[in-house]
């Protein structure tokens, strides 16, 4: 069964993949390794997980303004997520999404998105349960 | 032919960024801007990825369509060798500057564009990024800018536009809180300490807070601007304040006093700066360097330091950070030579906050800047003594910090 969610468009595109979800804010700079795509933060739900090819779902970002460049570096190393879905997108993530061409939607109700679920993103539309 | 299509690509990327930021902030349209100041220049801050991004954007061929200047980078371009900056770092820094120049941004390398001829008019819309410069432009000059980031400022430079929201609107400039100051604030360092305290007090107010400050005045004469500059730099660092109103002093506070006072819904009273000074002054051990000029020193600041030194020789390195253009002015007037004869160094194009301190072997320092004292322990793991310019000059002459 398919279910559609709608959010606010930050960077438009189409993508499909498996959700990698964090209930906690993500720190881009200093935690997300642009060479490996690995997230490292002791005690964080994403500690030791790789964002490559995943639909990254998180409430919001935290930390340094240099974070935009980390998303750019992930794109260059081929380790970027295929899309980002957030509750609240700030300037850092928005700029990062645009300069790295990562489809991104915010103002999302992320409670409907389970870790590991397959989703498809088409512009501001997020389609759940699709293959 | 190929070049023009490429040029379009850079500006198109810029428009995409501005359109997304408009959506996020609910801006109804864009405003035309008079100037841009770009941050994220020091290689120490942006690193390899930031450099790669800037080089790619520059390769698209688009250029700034309004006057645009650069924040300080990580090294003095002229005397880096004698100051001990590592050559590999300087080479990376030069690549950052070259990429930004490729985008049509002038290598002023200063946080004080208003000391090098970029002084927006009252009410003029601009897109500035460095936090103390933003606070100065909005508060002291009455110009209008949000707190931009590096890429959003570049996007503004390439298009001459910025989204109309927050500090670009009348409503977005109303104060959130009255701050009544009930203690003396004689020096610029004290103003910085006051700013540091205010930044924290308003931090949880709407939009990061806009204070309407009463009960204090800057000194008259050349110290006035230095005091106002330090006040804004302090609150922009400890909080995220982009605008302050100072009763009877800042232009909007003078023009619209009644309207602003009524808008502020909360009030705080500051009775003493002792706690603030104590929080900023946590130095331990021997001094590696005394660093003043954060934000960058004006020409008037230099003459004041010269007077305080009074021909005496300093015992630890005494670095005065400033814009290259102000250094040239000091050289042309003999002020630079007189300062150098006392042992002081005029350091341009960089500052104590964005230079690679560890690589320079700087662990313990003294400063008169609340902003520097706030950032250095967390960003560089440095140990910092904080006091007035007079106390800093005394420390440089003595070779050690004297707790009072």
Give the helices and strands of chain B as they follow along the chain. Answer: HEEHEHHEHHEEHEHEHHEHEHEHHEEHEH
The domain count of chain A comes to 1
Query: Which structural class is indicated by helix and strand composition of chain B?
Result: alpha/beta
CATH architecture of the largest domain in chain B: 2-Layer Sandwich
Q: What does the oligomeric state look like here? A: heterodimer
Using CB atoms under 8 Å apart, which protein chain pair has the greatest interface? A-B, 23 and 21 residues
CATH class of chain A: Alpha Beta
What series of H and E elements makes up the topology of chain A? Answer: EEEEEEHEHEEE
Strand content of chain A: 25-35%
The outline of chain A comes out as globular
The main sheet of chain B orders its strands as: 12-11-10-13-14
Distance between the termini of chain B: 68 Å
CATH architecture of chain A: 3-Layer(bba) Sandwich
Reported by name, the CATH topology of the largest domain in chain B is: Aconitase, domain 3
Taking the sheet with the most strands of chain A, its summary is: 8 strands, mixed
Number of E-state strands of chain B: 14
- What's the number of domains of chain B? 3
CATH superfamily of the largest domain in chain B: Aconitase, domain 3
Describe this structure in words.
The complex is a heterodimer of chains A (131) and B (404). Chain A has helices spanning 67-76, 91-100, and strands at residues 3-6, 8-11, 14-21, 26-27, 55-58, 61-62, 83-86, 104-106, 118-122, 125-128. In chain A, helix 1 (67-76) packs parallel to helix 2 (91-100). Chain A contains two helices and ten strands; from the N terminus they run E-E-E-E-E-E-H-E-H-E-E-E. The radius of gyration of chain A is 13 Å and the shape is globular. In chain A, 15% of the residues lie in helices and 31% in strands. In chain A, helix 2 links the parallel strand 7 and strand 8 (104-106). Chain A has an eight-stranded mixed β-sheet. With 131 residues, chain A is an alpha/beta fold. The longest helix of chain A is centred in the middle third of the chain and has 10 residues, at 67-76. Chain B is α/β, with parallel strands linked by helices. Chain B folds into three domains: 2-168, Aconitase, domain 3, CATH 3.30.499; 172-278, no CATH class; 281-398, 2-Layer Sandwich (Aconitase, domain 3). Chain B has helices at residues 2-25, 43-59, 80-83, 87-102, 131-139, 150-159, 188-202, 223-238, 251-255, 257-263, 274-280, 299-309, 324-333, 335-341, 370-380, 389-398; strands at 30-32, 36-38, 68-70, 127-128, 161-163, 177-181, 211-214, 245-246, 266-270, 289-297, 318-322, 344-348, 364-367, 383-386. In chain B, helix 1 (2-25) crosses helix 6. The longest helix of chain B has 24 residues, at 2-25. The radius of gyration of chain B is 21 Å and the shape is globular. Chain A binds chain B through residues 8-11, 34, 65-66, 68-70, 72-73, 76, 89-92, 94-95, 97-99, 106, and chain B through 13, 16-17, 20-21, 23-24, 40, 45-50, 52-53, 57, 149-152.
